[in-house]
């Protein structure tokens, strides 16, 4: 089984009922782990059905398989329905290439740095 | 030595009428006329081996399966079935052999629809030659009234029958010919193709080759079965005098023809699936990344997300314009979408196959 670590941290938000989290991925999301690991994000969405703002830090993410792209699309739909936002930071060129061809970069904003992503998420 | 009866020319002219009408009706706007004429002529010569076979059975009756069945089987239905199974098998094998031979020589089949179209023309040639002999027999033995009835029925239904039988074979032959792309496409959709896998292991051949062989056999079997059902219904009409059988045969052929026309409308059938060596690996996307996207296409195609599939295909084709699998996904997604779907019309215009592909994006 390929290893992937997912670390969730709170991001400070000013007032309101907004919830913001930074989710850091390290490793490879593939057939051996994607179903199991995606549950972590689904649990997060379930706990925060409204106004969830997610920053996905892909700096350490080396590979995403097709299923993980499918999950990412689903997370985007669910979070958007709840009035939240999702952004991606520091994705590697291979991941960016896939996201672009799939059309996800038209839906989810991507940023080269964490600061820019945070600014866009919390503004 | 038997002399040539000039009446054959007259009946040949008569047989040419439906052949030309069908030819115009089906192929008025498409294809290379020169190739169509060659295939038509060769298709008409396909009756020669059948006549030779019949002549051989007269010379060597001990090998005549139909006479053997007649002598040993008393049930008339079984006898008809054996007779028409034999007729269908010999005619369909010879017609399909002609197409396979021509294709192996001239590589004329580049799309599934090409395969159907060429099979139809070959069948039309065959039907034309067969009609000459039938019209001659009926005209000289039964008079003008019977000839007129035979002319109308054979021109419409029997000729259409030959078109349909061969057309279905052509469809399966096209699929078999492009089995590399089609098997890969099926794999991406999660189809296991168990039978081809089993056959491949059993006979120590690749799964693609096994798929190819079984698909050709499936086509041949379909053509033979349709041919048998049609001929058997006609014979039952003669045998029982019940005209319902002839009505069934006519409706049967019309329905088969409509199904075939629908198949010809599929965009996937018009895709050029010949793999040109110089077109390989022209993609500007890394192979592993492209594989991820193509897998996603398979997943979303199975989930009927055809609009998303279309959009991804369009973007991916800008990066890898010659990718047959992506082209197949795009065509099938368009085929799958409801014809009346307004989005399909818009996308169909946006993603028209007539447009030249966009230049590849440089990394």
Which short descriptors sum up this protein?
heterodimer; A: 123 residues; alpha/beta; Transcription Regulator spoIIAA; 5 strands; 32% strand; globular; B: 363 residues; 2 domains; 14 helices
Q: Any overview of this molecule?
A:
The complex is a heterodimer of chains A (123) and B (363). Chain A has 123 residues and is α/β, with parallel strands linked by helices. Chain A has one domain (4-122): Transcription Regulator spoIIAA (2-Layer Sandwich). Helix content of chain A is 40%, strand content 32%. Chain A contains four helices and five strands; from the N terminus they run ββαβαβαβα. In chain A, strands 1-2-3-4-5 form a five-stranded mixed sheet, with helices on both faces. In chain B, helix 6 (112-177) crosses helix 10 (244-265) and helix 7 (179-188) crosses helix 13 (324-336). The longest helix of chain B is centred in the middle third of the chain and has 66 residues, at 112-177. Chain B starts with 6 loop residues before the first helix and ends in a 13-residue tail after the last helix. The interface between A and B is medium-sized, with 14 and 17 residues.
The strand order across the widest sheet of chain A is: 1-2-3-4-5
Main pleated-sheet profile of chain B: none
H/E element sequence of chain B: HHHHHHHHHHHHHH
- Within CATH, the superfamily of chain A carries the name STAS domain
* SSE series of chain A: EEHEHEHEH
The CATH architecture of chain A would be: 2-Layer Sandwich
Strand content of chain B: under 5%
CATH class of chain A: Alpha Beta
Helix content of chain A: 25-40%
State the helical fraction of chain B: over 70%
Structural category of chain A is alpha/beta
Question: Would you summarize the structure shown here?
Answer:
The complex is a heterodimer of chains A (123) and B (363). Chain A has four helices and five strands.
Layout of secondary structure:
The complex is a heterodimer of chains A (123) and B (363).
Chain A lengths: L3 E7 L8 E11 L4 H14 L4 E13 L1 H16 L3 E5 L3 H10 L6 E3 L2 H9 L1
Parallel strand pairs in A: 2-3, 3-4, 4-5
Antiparallel strand pairs in A: 1-2
Chain B lengths: L6 H21 L5 H13 L1 H13 L5 H8 L3 H31 L5 H66 L1 H10 L5 H10 L3 H34 L3 H22 L21 H16 L3 H14 L4 H13 L5 H9 L13
């Amino acid at each position: 089984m390929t290893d992937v670590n997912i670390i969730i941290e709170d991001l400070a938000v000013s007032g309101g009922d907004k919830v913001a989290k930074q989710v850091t991925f390290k490793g490879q999301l593939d057939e051996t782990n994607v179903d199991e690991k995606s549950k972590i994000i689904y649990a997060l969405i379930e706990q925060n059905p409204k106004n969830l703002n997610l920053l996905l830090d892909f700096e350490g993410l080396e590979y995403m398989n097709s299923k993980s792209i499918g999950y990412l699309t689903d997370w985007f739909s669910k979070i958007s329905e709840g009035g939240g936002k999702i952004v991606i930071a520091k994705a590697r060129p291979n991941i960016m290439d896939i996201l672009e061809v799939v059309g996800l970069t038209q839906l989810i904003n991507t940023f080269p740095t964490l600061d820019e992503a945070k600014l866009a998420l919390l503004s | 030595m038997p002399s040539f009866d000039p009446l054959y020319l007259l009946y040949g002219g008569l047989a040419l009428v439906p052949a030309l009408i069908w030819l115009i009706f089906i192929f008025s706007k498409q294809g290379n006329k020169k190739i169509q004429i060659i295939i038509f002529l060769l298709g008409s010569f396909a009756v020669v081996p059948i006549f030779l076979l019949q002549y051989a059975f007269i010379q060597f009756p001990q090998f005549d399966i139909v006479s053997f069945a007649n002598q040993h089987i008393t049930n008339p239905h079984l006898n008809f079935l054996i007779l028409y199974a034999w007729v269908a098998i010999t005619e369909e094998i010879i017609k399909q052999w002609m197409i396979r031979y021509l294709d192996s020589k001239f590589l004329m089949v580049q799309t599934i629809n090409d395969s159907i179209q060429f099979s139809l023309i070959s069948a039309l040639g065959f039907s034309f030659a067969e009609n000459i002999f039938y019209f001659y027999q009926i005209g000289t033995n039964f008079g003008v009234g019977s000839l007129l009835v035979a002319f109308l029925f054979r021109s419409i239904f029997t000729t259409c029958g030959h078109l349909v039988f061969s057309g279905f074979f052509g469809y399966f032959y096209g699929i078999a010919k492009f089995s590399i792309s089609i098997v890969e496409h099926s794999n991406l959709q999660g189809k296991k193709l168990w039978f081809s896998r089993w056959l491949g292991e059993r006979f120590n051949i690749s799964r693609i080759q096994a798929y190819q062989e079984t698909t050709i056999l499936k086509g041949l079997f379909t053509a033979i079965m349709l041919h048998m059902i049609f001929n058997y219904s006609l014979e039952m009409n003669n045998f029982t005098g019940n005209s319902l059988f002839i009505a069934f045969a006519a409706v049967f052929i019309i329905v088969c023809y409509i199904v075939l026309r629908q198949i010809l409308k599929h965009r996937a059938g018009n895709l050029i699936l010949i793999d040109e060596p110089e077109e390989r690996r022209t993609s500007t996307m890394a192979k592993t990344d492209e594989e991820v996207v193509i897998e996603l296409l398979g997943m979303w195609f199975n989930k009927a997300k055809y609009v998303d599939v279309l959009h991804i295909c369009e973007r991916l084709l800008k990066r890898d314009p010659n990718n047959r699998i992506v082209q197949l996904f795009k065509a099938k997604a368009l085929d799958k979408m409801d014809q009346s779907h307004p989005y399909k019309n818009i996308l169909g215009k946006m993603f028209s196959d007539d447009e030249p592909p966009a230049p590849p994006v440089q990394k």
